[in-house]
Specification:
Blueprint (H helix, E strand, L loop, with lengths): L7 H10 L5 H14 L2 H6 L6 H6 L15 H21 L2
Length: 94
């Protein structure tokens, strides 16, 4: 779907077409975007979070309500493998 200018109406229409069971994924992604665009990060530049900051962030437990993830360790392992595969694939094209 290509739209010249994305509006709130377009987003809500697309959300309405999505199965309600997937809405938590949309909220997770919105949370990720908000975290990524945090003003303090832009001002100070990228930095590592302390353990306390990580625990207090919205990242820990972000997917706690996901019913499609039965084993979080296996799911995390699968995501890492996919990321490594993509990374190797992009290295090959250089």
């Amino acid at each position: 779907m290509t739209i010249a200018k994305v509006t709130q109406k377009h987003i809500l229409e697309e959300l309405g077409d999505l199965e309600p069971e997937r809405w938590s994924e949309v909220l997770d992604f919105i949370g990720y975007l908000k975290h990524r665009a945090a003003p303090e990060r832009a001002q100070a530049g990228p930095r590592d979070l302390t353990a306390r900051e990580l625990l207090q962030s919205d990242l820990v437990g972000m997917w706690a309500d996901r019913e499609d993830i039965e084993d979080s360790l296996s799911f995390a392992r699968q995501l890492r493998q996919q990321a490594q595969h993509r990374q190797r694939g992009s290295d090959d094209t250089a």
